[in-house]
Amino acid sequence: xxxIVVIGGGLSGLAAADELxxxxxxxxxxxxxxxxxxxxxxxxxxxxxxxxxYHHVMLPDVKTVEYLKGLGLWDSMIWKTSxxxxxxxxxxxxxxxxxxxxxxxxxxxxxxxRLFRFGIYCWMRKDWSxxxxxxxxxxxxxxxxxxxxxxxxKNLMDIKFNMxxxxxxxxxxxxxxxxxxxxxxxxxxxxxxxxxxxxxxxxRIIENGGGIRTSTEVTRIEDGRxxxxxxxxxxxxxxxxxxxxxxxxxxxxxxxxxxxTLARYLHNIRFKSIISMVCGSDMPLTKYYWTVMLKPHPxxxxxxxxxxxxxxxxxxxxxxxxLFTYLDQNDPMFNMDEDSIRGIxxxxxxxxxxxxxLRWSKVFKLKDSQPIFARDYxxxxxxxxxxxxxxxxxxxxxPSPRTMDAALGSGFNTARYIVKEGV
Length: 423
Fold this sequence. Notes:
The chain has helices at about 10-20, 60-70, 100, 110-125, 135-145, 145-160, 170-185, 195-205, 250-255, 260-265, 340-350, 405-420; strands at about 1-5, 25-30, 40-45, 50, 75-80, 85-90, 90-95, 185-190, 210-215, 215-220, 225-230, 235-245, 270-280, 290-295, 300-305, 320-325, 360-370, 390. The chain is an alpha/beta fold. Among the domains are: about 1-80 and about 190-270 and about 375-420, FAD/NAD(P)-binding domain (3-Layer(bba) Sandwich), CATH 3.50.50; about 95-185, Guanine Nucleotide Dissociation Inhibitor, domain 1 (Orthogonal Bundle), CATH 1.10.405. The longest helix has 18 residues, at about 405-420.
């Protein structure tokens, strides 16, 4: 019997288990993978722990900063000033600072001026929640005009969601724009890596009496009983006075009978999956940290040059890159093997950089990666009307973008809710 069973060892689950254990609750965290971290997990290659997807820290990430300080990682943070660029019809354009707008050739002067003013507006507006029912298509057309809307934001939504602008909530996009213009071009990364942050959270949970089981899949949740099966096929049942789920709603619904009200909430939450290819090379693709492939659309939506943040991050080769694609799980590409995906990515890269060669690469396919924050999106509650069940995860932090900060904050907030309730 445990006070709390936390399902899912991503950042939300780790933050929840950590806060509960620090408040003397008997906690057990269960994770399906053999490595903790969820979307922020890492893999070991040539003696280095490398995240499976791109990650960075920004100064407005208040909760992430709090954890980095509490875990003793803040003083060793690497901070770099590196711009974001957009690839458009054979040319790379910077768009990190207001002055860059006027050098963006695809737009006329009047549209550039409107976009410049829009940037100031995004910098000043803190609260975007009132635009939850407003679609991006209509709102952006009024603010920046048809051409800028299509060239920039229509292409961005194609990359992120493969959905029309009219389906996406302006509250989500506005919140993301607010964070972007506030940070602009300053990014941080722990010198010891994201894996060290995860490892120290794990250690702190254990030091405070919490338990952690990896390589263990939850197969059923019912009346406080959590049935699991480990990688050897062994079945165990754990009992919790409360259960915190940080797994995706789709998976939760497949293993737990919930109330009709909660089921309606969770059934309406949809996700995009992501393919991430991590690779090392001796050849430069871009000197900037983040390049978005606006037009034409290759098989990947963008390139993150991790070396721009951490010059010693690559175990082989001078540069460490992330290429990513957001797509549906039933997309043919998501069901391809690693060699096929690598071949498609390489073919598209060489259309831009004909002589590009890899030193090494790993391909990861991650389901339920990006919540689709469509119009009228509603966050499910922390405490559900299903007995003993509580929720945490980035999918319930709308309109905040999916970030480490949102994940950590969600887990922490759920734990604090339980702490206030008491044993």
